[in-house]
Design brief:
The protein is α+β, with helices and mostly antiparallel strands and 194 residues long. The chain contains five helices and four strands; from the N terminus they run ααβααβαββ. Strands 1-2-4-3 form a four-stranded antiparallel β-sheet. The radius of gyration is 18 Å and the shape is globular.
Amino acid sequence: MMNFDPAQVTKLLRNRRSIFTKQFSGERVKDAFIQEMLENANWAPTYKKTEPWRFKVFCDEGLKKLGEMQAEIYKKANGKKADDSTLKKLINKPQECSHVIAIGMKRDKSITKIEEICAVAAAVQNMHLTATALGVGCYWSTGGITYLEEAKPYFDLGKKDLLLGFLYVGMPDLKKWPESKRKSIESKVTWVRE
């Protein structure tokens, strides 16, 4: 039987935070840390073991390529309605990071879509918890080109697949790890005993 320290698990879960690009130091995250995050993502629960998560990691010059790709996709989807400030953000945001991980869902048609989305979300939570344990900052964003059909081919995703966002990763530049609060669990739980 495995024996884990519940206090350490609780501490990790309760200290996971979204650390945003403005809080990144500019220091590069070790590729070995990214690899560990990805390996732990692969151990997420998955109905019928479909393992629907697909990740594409951008770093170094790849960050510039991602920014340019996002701008191209956004322009293609919006034509003359494309907003210059949005284009600028799409180009520049990846370069504020050490790594950006595109989060995709490869659909198994025998499984309901929501089951596959939940599996991918669990995989991302595993990455986020691993990042926290390693002292790495990150946040999951579903903005920008995430829900544009035109984006899917760039991430090797088919029509039934989904692009579910991007995990922006960097070393934090913080004097203190951010704290957070939650409302009482009591207001969110009903116990049925009889």
